């Protein structure tokens, strides 16, 4: 494990699985373990433990840039996600897409979309996208090749709003849970998640060092 950093890379993991300690949360834990071992500061949010509502579609945020609903998501959407260096969304596939918990969370980020696209309050540079990577960790019972395809556009929309760089190599997928009988038996998922967490922090540390040397 790396020594404690003064200004560590902040890694925020958000799980949309309602199943505590299940396949998806375990996968997220591996990513966060890797990030922590590389010297990152990690935090895990479990959406199912929070009190929050889905978007009402009132579109008030199109005019004000602020959500009319005051609940547990507000500090996450206005502080925790914007202040994180690395964001990790984790969700199992339920009924062919992300869970209701994760979808409701992402819909509530419509406020951030409004700030950017309706009110022109936010502009992210290319450098911002590179220095704020977004990841998606996901698990599914089935092995059909398109099982995760319905989720990717939703995750892309979320990360675009926050200026996070989300590319296909930032997906850690674990299909075939029905066959494997659980994430621990999956041949690659834990290793890939741990390595991705570690690499995410090391990469950002390297970029910071290069900036200091300029
Ligand atoms: C309500 C529900 C719906 C599901 N729907 C699907 C599905 O459409 N396709 C699929 O491949 N797996 C589906 N699964 C299986 C889960 O994606 C899989 O077991 C996953 O690893 C569970 O993760 P968790 O332990 O974090 O809940 C479903 C599971 C549940 C509980």
Task: Write a structural description.
The protein is an alpha/beta fold. The chain has one domain (10-213): 3-Layer(aba) Sandwich (Rossmann fold), CATH 3.40.50. The chain is built from 9 helices and 5 strands. It has helices at residues 23-37, 61-64, 73-83, 100-108, 110-118, 126-131, 152-162, 177-180, 189-213; strands at residues 10-15, 41-46, 86-92, 134-139, 171-174. The protein has a 5-stranded parallel beta sheet, sandwiched between helices. α1 packs parallel to α9 (189-213) and α5 packs across α7. The longest helix is centred in the C-terminal third of the chain and has 25 residues, at 189-213. The two termini are 28 Å apart. The chain binds flavin mononucleotide.
CATH class: Alpha Beta
Helix-residue proportion: 40-55%
Small molecules bound in the structure, each named once: flavin mononucleotide
Strand content: 5-15%
Widest β-sheet, arrangement of strands: 2-1-3-4-5
Looking at the structure, what is the overall shape? globular
Q: Give the second-level CATH assignment, the architecture.
A: 3-Layer(aba) Sandwich
Counting copies of identical and different chains, the oligomeric state is: single chain
Unreliable residue runs? none
**How many DSSP H or I helices?**
9
Number of domains: 1
How many strands, what sense, and barrel or not for the largest sheet?
5 strands, parallel
CATH level-four homologous superfamily name = Flavodoxin domain
Order of H and E elements: EHEHHEHHHEHEHH
Average pLDDT taken over every residue: 96
Q: Give the number of DSSP strands.
A: 5
CATH topology: Rossmann fold
Rg calc:
17 Å
Specify the structural class.
alpha/beta
| N-to-C CA distance | 28 Å
């Amino acid at each position: 494990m790396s020594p404690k950093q003064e200004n560590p890379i902040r890694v925020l993991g958000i799980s949309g699985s309602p199943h505590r300690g299940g396949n998806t949360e375990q996968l997220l834990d591996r990513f966060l373990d890797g990030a922590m071992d590389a010297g990152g500061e990690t935090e895990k949010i479990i959406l199912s433990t929070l009190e929050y509502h889905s978007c009402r579609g009132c579109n008030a945020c199109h005019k004000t840039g602020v959500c009319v609903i005051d609940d547990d998501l507000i500090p996450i959407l206005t502080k925790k996600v914007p202040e994180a260096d690395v964001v990790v969304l984790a969700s199992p596939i339920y009924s062919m897409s992300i869970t209701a918990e994760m979808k409701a969370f992402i819909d509530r980020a419509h406020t951030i979309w409004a700030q950017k696209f309706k009110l022109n309050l936010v502009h992210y540079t290319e450098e911002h996208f590179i220095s704020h990577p977004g990841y998606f960790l996901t698990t599914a019972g089935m092995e059909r090749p398109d099982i995760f395809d319905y989720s990717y556009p939703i995750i892309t929309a979320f990360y675009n709003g926050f200026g996070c760089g989300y590319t296909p190599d930032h997906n850690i997928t674990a299909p075939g849970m029905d066959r494997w009988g659980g994430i621990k038996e999956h041949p690659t998922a834990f290793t890939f998640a741990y390595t991705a967490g570690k690499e995410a922090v090391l990469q950002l540390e390297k970029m910071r060092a290069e900036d200091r040397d300029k």
